[in-house]
Amino acid sequence: MSYDLIIVGSGAAGLSAAVYSGRYRMNTLVIGDEFGGYTSIAGPIENYPGYSSIDGFDLMVNMKKQATDLGIEIRDGRVEDIRRTESGCFAVRTKKGEEFFSNTLVIATGTEHRRLGIPNEKELTGKGVHYCVTCDGPLYGGKTIAVVGGGDSSIKGVNLAAEYAKKIYLIVRGTKVSAEPINYERMQRLGDKVEVLFETEVKEIVGEGKFEKAVLSKPVNGSTDLAVDGLFIEVGLLPRSELLKKAGIDLDEKGYAQADQMMRTNVPGAFVAGDIFNLFEGFRQDITAAAMGAVAATSAYEYYKIHGDLCKLHGKAPDGIG
Ligand SMILES: Cc1cc2nc3c(=O)[nH]c(=O)nc-3n(C[C@H](O)[C@H](O)[C@H](O)COP(=O)(O)OP(=O)(O)OC[C@H]3O[C@@H](n4cnc5c(N)ncnc54)[C@H](O)[C@@H]3O)c2cc1C
């Protein structure tokens, strides 16, 4: 079955692209393996215009509804391969073995959490070592936890965890944090509940089948062993760029997509949007992802108007599946 446009990724970028392509009346399929992407687990979003505060998941549900109301088809699934057919059509294959065809493509696969890369991290993930305070923080009601990282996401994580945890250590490699001032001020108001350990790194994670303690690069309260109930790692993001490579899209030196300001890549008909494209020098937010999604869909529409249907051989999907 063929579409005018396939969007890979159902986060803020992918769903915003879908809203625009729906309004362009493009026959569109969105495929995403984790509905809502990071926004759906980000907790309260207070900087998306139009909402003083909205839960990230609800924001994504609203975007999805807006897209499906416009006739966009959204499927859960993991895309494993993208190739170009002889006619110039994109063939998109999912893990389940389904194959869909499209004239244009928007890749909005976002980023994934960077790991510390230290002993026992992998083995104890989900067993006391976590990467998402919103998702797993509530498991630590009345307990002591440590959050590793000095960026805005980690500060937001501390503020959220403070609603249930008894005590939180924030482990920062550098000499300061780089958070939105409003989030930093909120953390400061938590007082003694939060202890910030500057110029400190986690060197090792210790535990037999379950996290027991983190070994730090310098002592806290006389010991480099920090025995807490849970460890949350928020040390940055890496681009999810496997599909870009498969589609033949050029990457920058950090592995993010290369594109122009209209989200056009080096592959004709293929566009990118959201966190996968480092357009704003590391400034990655819902508003930037949504903006890029809107632009990518617009570029896909312009491309389709010029080149027409290159996927005729594959039979068109019915309009407005929703
Ligand atoms: C803890 C945290 C708090 C945040 N707080 C805020 C905030 O308060 N305000 C704000 O504006 N921003 C916030 N952000 C940033 C914001 O969430 C991101 O900028 C936004 O999610 C980027 O959207 P995206 O669509 O580009 O990528 P993502 O949200 O990462 O979505 C990517 C999508 O692609 C899918 N995908 C990836 N690979 C495949 C594949 N092979 N096949 C199918 N699907 C695939 C994923 O499942 C997902 O659906 C926060 C982020 C985090 C981590």
Short characterization:
With 322 residues, the protein is α/β, with parallel strands linked by helices. The chain has helices at residues 12-23, 56-69, 133-136, 152-161, 181-188, 242-246, 286-307; strands spanning 2-8, 28-32, 44-45, 54-55, 73-76, 79-84, 90-94, 99-107, 111-113, 129-130, 144-148, 167-171, 194-197, 202-206, 213-220, 223-226, 230-233, 237-239, 270-272.
Number of helical elements: 7
User: Distance N terminus to C terminus?
Assistant: 15 Å
Q: How would you characterize the largest beta sheet?
A: 7 strands, mixed
Strand segment tally: 19
CATH superfamily of the largest domain: FAD/NAD(P)-binding domain
The multimeric state of the shown protein is single chain
Shape estimate: elongated
Q: Which molecules are bound in this entry?
A: flavin-adenine dinucleotide
Give the SSE layout.
Blueprint: E1 2-8, H1 12-23, E2 28-32, E3 44-45, E4 54-55, H2 56-69, E5 73-76, E6 79-84, E7 90-94, E8 99-107, E9 111-113, E10 129-130, H3 133-136, E11 144-148, H4 152-161, E12 167-171, H5 181-188, E13 194-197, E14 202-206, E15 213-220, E16 223-226, E17 230-233, E18 237-239, H6 242-246, E19 270-272, H7 286-307
Parallel strand pairs: 1-2, 1-8, 2-5, 8-19, 10-17, 11-12, 11-17, 12-13
Antiparallel strand pairs: 3-4, 6-7, 7-8, 9-18, 14-15, 15-16
Helix pairs in contact: 1-2, 1-7, 4-5
Bound molecules: flavin-adenine dinucleotide.
